[in-house]
Amino acid sequence: MQVELTRFRVKKGKEELVDQWMEFLNEHMSDVLLTLDGEKMFVETIMRDTMGVHDYLYWYSIQADDGGSSSETEQCIDKKHLDYFQRCIDVTYRPKNLKTEVVMIPKRIRNQMEVAEKQKV
């Protein structure tokens, strides 16, 4: 099981586009959730913060070790998501992967994740 938290910096002047991006994801949540199933992604959360003059997006995820990309039918939402990513994320800033120190998932939930990890999607 992969547990990750990564920080990305938003390009200056793209803050309103990030607002649109997050609105798009929230408005299309049923389709977004279908892509997560295809990727064996149990949890994916995007958080936002401002430090100094820059906005940052943080991706927190829990994914099966053998998680991958979505099916072709689910890729429509992913294409739009990646388009926003490319337009909004500052590639001159190296993404920061925070170090995982402790993973606290109750056994009953971890068991369900392990069952889902073994399922073929």
Would you tell me the overall average pLDDT?
A: 88
Based on CA atoms alone, the radius of gyration comes out at 15 Å
Give the domain tally: 1
| Topology pattern, helix = H, strand = E | EHHEEHEH
The 3D shape can be described as globular
Numbering strands along the chain, what is their spatial order in the largest sheet?
2-3-1-4
In terms of per-residue confidence, which ranges show pLDDT below 50 for 5 or more consecutive residues?
none
Number of beta strands: 4
Plain-language structure description:
The protein has 121 residues and is α+β, with helices and mostly antiparallel strands. The chain has one domain: 2-Layer Sandwich (Alpha-Beta Plaits), CATH 3.30.70.100. Helices cover 40% and strands 26% of the residues. It has 4 helices and 4 strands, in the order βααββαβα. A 4-stranded antiparallel beta sheet has the order 2-3-1-4, with helices on one face. Helix 1 packs antiparallel against helix 3. It starts with a strand and ends with a helix. The model has no long low-confidence stretch (mean pLDDT 88).
Please sum up the structure shown.
This protein is of the alpha+beta class.
Q: Which features characterize this protein?
A:
single chain, 121 residues, alpha+beta, Alpha-Beta Plaits, 4-stranded antiparallel beta sheet, 4 strands, 40% helix, globular
Write the layout of secondary structure elements.
Blueprint (H helix, E strand, L loop, with lengths): L1 E8 L5 H13 L1 H10 L2 E11 L2 E10 L11 H14 L7 E2 L9 H12 L3
Antiparallel strand pairs: 1-3, 1-4, 2-3
Helix pairs in contact: 1-3
